[in-house]
Amino acid sequence: MEMRYSRLSSRTMAFVLAGGRGSRLMELTDTRAKPAVYFGGKTRIIDFALSNGLNSGIRKMAVATQYKAHSLIRHCQRGWSFFRAERNEYLDILPASQRVDETTWYLGTADAVTQNIDIVDSYDVDYVLILAGDHIYKMDYEIMLRQHVANKADVTVGCLTVPRAEASAFGVMQVDATDRITAFVEKPADPPTLPGDPETCLASMGIYVFDWHFLRDLLIRDAEDPSSSHDFGKDLIPQIVKNGKAMAHRFAESCVRDHPESNAYWRDVGTVDAFWKANIDLTDFTPELNLWDRNWPIWTYSESVPPAKFVHDEEDRRGSAVSSMVSGGCVISGTEVRNSLLFTMVHTNSYSVLDHAVVLPYVVVGRHARLKNVVIDRGVVIPNGLVVGEDPEEDARWFRVTEGGITLITQPMLDRRAAVA
C-alpha cells in the first residue's frame, strides 16, 4: 500500500479497551473501572495509553467503557477535551450501549470493536491500534506501526520479554528467528521460550496493530461464530497465527527511555501490592518511570489548586516531607511524611506520621494518626489517633490487608469500625 502521509500515525486510530473492573484491586474499583484508578500523584492509569497515542502523533482515538464508567468518562471529558474536530482530531467515548440489540453489552475485547465498526469506518483510517487502558508505560507507537507495515503482517502484537517463571500469568508467544509468531497460548503452565534462551519468554502486552480492512472482515466473521468468546487474545490472535501472518514487536524497541541504557519500564498495577509499589517507587531518588520528561509528557486533567503548603515548625509538630511526592493543594500541618505519595488536596493534621503511604485525593488525616504501608482511597477521613501498619492482626479486623502486608483503607471500612467502637 502506498503511504499517503509520512507518519503512519496520521492514518491510524487508537481504540482503547477500558471497560474492565480490575477486581484484584479490591475496593479501589468498587466505584470506578481500573483505567480510572489514580496513579502517580495527579494522573489516572488510562492517561498513559492516551498520552502515548498523542505523543506518537495519533489524533484519532476511542475509549470503550463498560464497568462503572462514570468516573472514567468524566475524566476523559475534563482532561482530554482539547481534540478539535475541525483539525480532524477525535476522542470518542464509546460506552456499552446495546447498539447491536437490547440485551447485548460488550461480550469481549473483540466484540467491543465489532459493535463500533460503523464509528471506526467513519474515521477513514488505514490502521487500527488496539490498546489496553490499564497499564503504566511509555511507548512510541509509530515504531510499532512502521514494523507492522514493513513486515506486511496481518497483525503485530506488542510483547514484553519476561522471565519464564513469570510467564504463566500472560498470553505467551512462541516465535521463530524472524519474530514471526508460530504459537500463542493464554497463561500456559509450560510457557514456550525464546529461540536460544530457555529462561525467557515473550508475553503479550494487549497491544495489537491491524490493517483496518483486514480486522473489519475478521470481526464480522468472528461475530457470526457462536463458539467464539469474541476476545482478541483467546480467539482472533490464535486464528491469525494459524492461518495468517502474525508478528511480534518487542517493547524494548519502542519504549521511551531517558537514556539508552535505562530499563524498559512497564507495569501492570492490577493488585493492591503492585499499585502501592509502583506509586512508592516514584519517590526514589531516580525513579525508573520519569514523570518529569517534557519530551514525552503524561497528559491529564489538572485541577486548579494552590501549591502544597507545610506548616508548623516545632520539635514534635513539624510539617515536613522527605523522599516523598506531594501534589498541589495539599496542606501538611505538623505531620511527618516519609517515602510517601500524596495526591491532590490531601490535608494532614498535627502529630501524625505517614510512612510509605499512598494517599489518594481529598483525604483528611486526623491528629496523632500513624499510618505505614497503606493505600488510602479518595475522600477518606482518617480519625484522630488511628494506627495502621504496626499490628497486622488488628489491621485485618477492619481493613483489607494484602499478602504483601499493605493495608487498603476505604471510608466504608472506617464507618464499620466506628459503628462497632
UniProtKB/TrEMBL annotation:
Residues 306-409 form the Glucose-1-phosphate adenylyltransferase/Bifunctional protein GlmU-like C-terminal hexapeptide domain. It comes from the Bacteria. Alpha-D-glucose 1-phosphate binds at residues 106, 171, 186-187, 204. The record marks 66, 105 as: Could play a key role in the communication between the regulatory and the substrate sites. Pathway: Glycan biosynthesis; glycogen biosynthesis. Keywords: ATP-binding, Carbohydrate metabolism, Glycogen biosynthesis, Glycogen metabolism, Nucleotide-binding, Nucleotidyltransferase, Transferase. SUPFAM superfamilies: Nucleotide-diphospho-sugar transferases, Trimeric LpxA-like enzymes. The keyword Transferase applies. One of its GO terms (biological process) is glycogen biosynthetic process. Residues 14-283 form the Nucleotidyl transferase domain. Its EC number is 2.7.7.27. The keyword Nucleotide-binding applies. It catalyses: alpha-D-glucose 1-phosphate + ATP + H(+) = ADP-alpha-D-glucose + diphosphate. GO terms for molecular function: ATP binding; glucose-1-phosphate adenylyltransferase activity. Homotetramer. Belongs to the bacterial/plant glucose-1-phosphate adenylyltransferase family. HAMAP family: GlgC. Involved in the biosynthesis of ADP-glucose, a building block required for the elongation reactions to produce glycogen. Catalyzes the reaction between ATP and alpha-D-glucose 1-phosphate (G1P) to produce pyrophosphate and ADP-Glc. This is Glucose-1-phosphate adenylyltransferase.
